[in-house]
Amino acid sequence: MIDIHSHLIPTVDDGSETEEISLNMAKGLYEQGVTDVICTPHFTNGYKAEYEEITKLAEKLKADLKEAGVPLNIYLGREIFVTKLTKQQLKEYDRKFTLNGSEYVLIEFDLVNQSEIAETVYEIANMGYIPIVAHIERYEYCTLDEAIEVKEMGGMIQVNADSIAGISKKLHHKMVKKLFKNGLVDFVASDLHDGRDIVMQDAYKIVKRKFGEETAEEVFYKNAKKILKG
Ligand SMILES: [Fe+2]
Fold first, then answer.
1. Cα dihedral angle (211, 214, 217, 222), rounded to 10 degrees?
2. How far apart are CA 161 and CA 119, in angstroms?
3. Could you say which DSSP state residue 4 is in?
4. Which pLDDT tens digit goes with each residue over 155-211?
5. Cβ pair 204, 220 in contact under 8 A
6. pLDDT in tens, 32-79
7. Strands 187-189 and 130-133: what pairing?
8. CA–CA gap between residue 223 and residue 137 (Å, rounded)
9. What is the pLDDT of residue 166?
10. Ligand 1 centroid from CA 170, angstroms
11. How far, in Å, from the CA of 212 to the mean position of ligand 1?
12. Is 63 exposed, middle or buried (0-12, 13-18, 19+ CB in 10 A)?
């Protein structure tokens, strides 16, 4: 499996406080069948670590994994919290802001206050990027119609593994089911933070059982593979 959304880089956001914790989180992902992971530290008002710092910490994590004998491949990206400044920041940071230096950009929105998700996707897609809406099932104001609109506007949709495994809110679980039934899910990712259960394997089995192996392969591997190719 390829995991496109995780908070494995230590100290730069709320994902992990130490290098040791990060190493254990990474090992956990590998044990679940993840071979490649994109580390996507938050970019919000509170978390704005520079690309250079994140790159340095990622290199250290890679070295620690090598020493521990864990062949998990590490890539870099960001999870960008959308504000009025996002488009300007994207112009400035360009490929330092994208997933593995590709044209794919992972964006997140306010969980509670209604945000213009589809409109933002349209604007960012118009700049030449492929916006991926992070854990769309967690925005409870986002309707199925808006998710359809996201796809029509050139965006892609990521859902969290724990919403599939049913250990997050029931409402999120229900929305994920609806998204799958309508063929709208492009990626399943861990969105891993320290202290959260890693359920990639469980989620894979559930998707395979309910929606077929082809769908499971697409959302856990094939679509993400395109991002790694750059
Ligand atoms: Fe996240």
1. -130
2. 26
3. E
4. 999 999 999 998 888 999 999 999 999 999 999 999 999 999 999 999 999 999 999
5. yes
6. 999 999 999 999 989 999 999 999 999 999 999 999 999 999 999 999
7. unpaired
8. 19
9. 81
10. 19
11. 27
12. exposed
State in Å: Cα 43 to ligand 1 middle: 10
Query: Which two tokens mark 4?
Result: 């496109």
Cα within 13 Å of Cα(182), Cβ side:
16
Residue with tokens 């599939």, as numbered in its chain: 164
Q: Which of 71, 105, 80, 106 is nearest to 13 (CA)?
A: 80
pLDDT tens string 78-108? 999 999 999 999 999 999 999 999 999 999 9
Q: Domains in the chain, please, with CATH?
A: 2-228 (3.20.20.140)
Q: How far is the CA of 5 from the centre of ligand 1 (A)?
A: 6
How many residues can be counted in the chain? 230
What letter represents residue 9's amino acid?
I
| Ligand 1 centroid – CA 26 distance (Å) | 15
pTM across the whole model: 0.97
What are the structure tokens assigned to 137, written together? 């099932």
Per-residue b/e over 78-110, b at no fewer than 16 CB within 10 Å?
bbbbbeeebeeebeeeeeebbbbebebbbbbbe
**How buried is 214 (Cβ within 10 angstroms: 0-12 exposed, 13-18 middle, 19+ buried)?**
exposed
Closest to 216 (Cα-Cα) out of 206, 224, 226, 225 = 206
Residue 157: partners with Cβ closer than 8 Å, 6 or more residues away:
132, 133, 136, 147, 150, 151, 179, 184, 185, 186, 187
Tell me the two tokens of residue 115: 């945000």
